[in-house]
Amino acid sequence: MQTTFPEPKYFICSLTTLIARKMVAYYNRVLSPLGLTAQQMMALGVLWREENLSLGVFARRAGIGKAAAATMIKRLEQMGLVSKEADLKDGRLNVLKLTNKARKMAPQVAEKVATLERNIESAIGHEKVRSLIEALTIIRDLKL
User: In CATH terms, is domain 13-141 a member of 1.10.10.10?
Assistant: First the structure.
């Protein structure tokens, strides 16, 4: 027996899930020679923009839970990309710092990101990319 299901107007969830998987697969493929995954690149991206973050602040900026952040940072430490140091302002806290290895890797990763962005922009145009980013940012910030 066929179940009747009212057709959604846009299928936003399915579409964004498929796009996210496609982008993660791209990053996993192009970052593999650098020994990184898409998730590790996104975590490093937070620290490339700003170091000396506590684990809690890092987790919020990365959009992940504190336990997931701790696991990610531990893995990045094992890879020699991140270190923890005592916070000079509050000795009870550790802050996250990039290693020289991670700093040297940044331009190579930035080029992979730029390549994907150029490909998307080439396919749909600059104005549509800007509109897409604006729309996704609004959706991300919605209180659902």
Answer: yes
